[in-house]
Structures are given as C-alpha cells and as structure tokens.
C-alpha cells in the first residue's frame, strides 16, 4: 500500500492501524482481541485491519501459531511517525492512541519544558523487556562514571515531573535504581534468566506507599486559602499516597519545604510537609528541599 493509498483511509482506520503499530513496536505483540476491546469492532474487522497493516508494513509482523498472536517482525520498520511525548503518554496513561498527523489543539497551548532527545527504538526495547519481564543490556551515561555498559531488569516507566526514567534492578550495583531515558544511548534484550531478587516485587522503595500531608506554608504564604483552592485541599490539607521511590522527586518538583520547623524562606515554597515522619526511610530524600541527611537516620 502506497502513502497515497494510506492517506485515503478514514481517520478511524488510520487510528486502528496506528494502534497495531504501537502495540507491535512497544509491547511486541498484538491479537485480534486487542483491537476488538480497544475499538469495539467485530473480530472480522480486526482481521481485515491486521491484513491492511501487513500490506503497508510487510516485515513488521509475524504470526505466532503457538501463542495465536501477531508478534513484532525481526525487520520491523515503523510506518507512523510518533512524537516521543505522545508515545510516553500512551504507554503511561492508556490514551493518545490516535495517529497524530490529523490531531490539532482545540485552543492555543504552549509548554515551557525542555525537550530531551529520545530514541524510540531504544524505548521500545525497554517496554518490550518490561512486558516480557526480561533483562536488558544498556549503554548508560552517568554524571559520576560517564558512559558504561550495564545489565538491568526494567519493570516500570516513571515521570518525575521533569523527565522520564525507567525503574529496574541494576546488576552492576545489586540494587534497584532509576535510569534517565535520555541518558540511555543503546539497549538490547538479553536471553539471560531473571532471578527472583531482581523482580519488581523485591523493590522495597517502589512497593512502599507513603501517605503524606501537605499544607500551605505557614511562614511564606500570606493567604493560605489561595493555596488551598489551587491544590484542592480538604480542610486545609492535601493528603496523597505516593510511592517511596517517587517521594523525593515529588517534593523537589513542587518545592515542598520538608524541614521540621518550616524554616525554608522564599516565594517558591508554597507547601510544607506536615507529617515528615511518613517519609522516614525513603532513600531519595536527598532531593527533598530541607530534608537534612542526618535526620534520615
């Protein structure tokens, strides 16, 4: 099928073909039922869509007779050009499936964020490893050690408010860590078995959920009702449940004063962490404003 023929398809057809490609590229497989469930179409229509996609990307999918699913072909080459942020939105929130070329903002919108270069093929290796519970070899650029080769067992993607990272077990350090996606130069799937100690359920910081209480900063906020309205507080308190592995990022991103006596000065500190004891034992609190290292003990 030529690009001209592709452009003659309806938007609904393009959406379904784009969904097929997204599943193949980043999950590694797709079944007819995936299409039926996502779009509410009949099985026969799903079969036709898969056949149409095979016409436009002949090497992109193979049929696994044992698993009865279509799998990513060895010579996969993307047909649709998806922006990295839309891919991450689809992976993390389950929407944004539509093929992007026809989408337009309904009102004028701008974002004041830095754009980081992201290799989508590298990302697809990580997401397929997460789906398969497999290990990955990556080339990673760290501030402390420069470019190194590591083996990790990824199990989740996470957005810390400033950038995306992958959470996984690092075989080099023997611990669970975060790896910034833009710092990963290359990635490839490994055939080595994943040990029990490398599984997601062994990551204490990821599985621990802290219940935090944020309030308007007692010293820096002149009109606390403004902050209460802005954050939708209930009786002056914003109660949240957050993974321990994400707590430090959250405190830094929102400029939450984590001192015991709300002593941080500055117009940027609108919030104060009222129940500091809820974060005792959280390992990434070095990122939290005012949470002194000696207090962690």
Automatic annotation (TrEMBL):
InterPro entries: CapW-like (IPR016634), CapW_CTD (IPR059020), CBASS_pafABC_assoc_protein (IPR051534), WHD_CapW (IPR059019), WYL_dom (IPR026881). Transmembrane segments: none annotated. Residues 210-278 form the DNA-binding transcriptional repressor CapW C-terminal dimerisation domain. Signal peptide: none annotated. Residues 121-188 form the WYL domain. Residues 13-92 form the DNA-binding transcriptional repressor CapW winged helix-turn-helix domain. It comes from the Bacteria. This is WYL domain-containing protein.
């Amino acid at each position: 099928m030529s690009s001209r023929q592709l452009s003659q398809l309806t938007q609904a057809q393009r959406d379904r073909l784009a969904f097929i490609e997204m599943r193949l590229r980043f999950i590694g497989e797709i079944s007819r039922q995936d299409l039926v469930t996502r779009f509410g179409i009949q099985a026969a229509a799903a079969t036709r869509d898969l056949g149409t996609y095979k016409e436009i990307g002949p090497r992109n999918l193979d049929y696994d007779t044992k698993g009865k699913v279509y799998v990513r072909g060895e010579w996969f080459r993307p047909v649709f050009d998806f922006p990295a942020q839309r891919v991450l939105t689809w992976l993390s929130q389950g929407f944004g499936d539509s093929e992007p070329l026809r989408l337009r903002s309904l009102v004028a919108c701008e974002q004041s964020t830095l754009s980081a270069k992201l290799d989508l093929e590298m990302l697809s290796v990580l997401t397929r490893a997460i789906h398969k519970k497999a290990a990955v070899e990556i080339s990673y650029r760290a501030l402390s050690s420069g470019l190194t080769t590591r083996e990790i067992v990824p199990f989740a993607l996470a957005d810390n408010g400033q950038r995306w990272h992958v959470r996984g077990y690092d075989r080099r350090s023997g611990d669970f860590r975060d790896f910034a996606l833009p710092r990963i130069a290359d990635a490839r799937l490994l055939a080595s078995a994943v040990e029990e100690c490398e599984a997601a359920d062994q990551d204490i910081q990821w599985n621990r959920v802290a219940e935090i209480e944020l309030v308007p900063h007692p010293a820096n906020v002149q009109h606390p009702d403004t902050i209460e309205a802005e954050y939708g507080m209930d009786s002056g308190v914003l109660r949240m449940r957050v993974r321990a592995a994400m707590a430090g990022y959250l405190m830094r991103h929102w400029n939450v004063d984590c001192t015991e006596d709300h002593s941080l000065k500055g117009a940027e500190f609108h919030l104060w962490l009222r129940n500091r004891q809820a974060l005792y034992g959280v390992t990434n609190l070095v990122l939290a404003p005012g949470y002194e290292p000696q207090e962690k003990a």
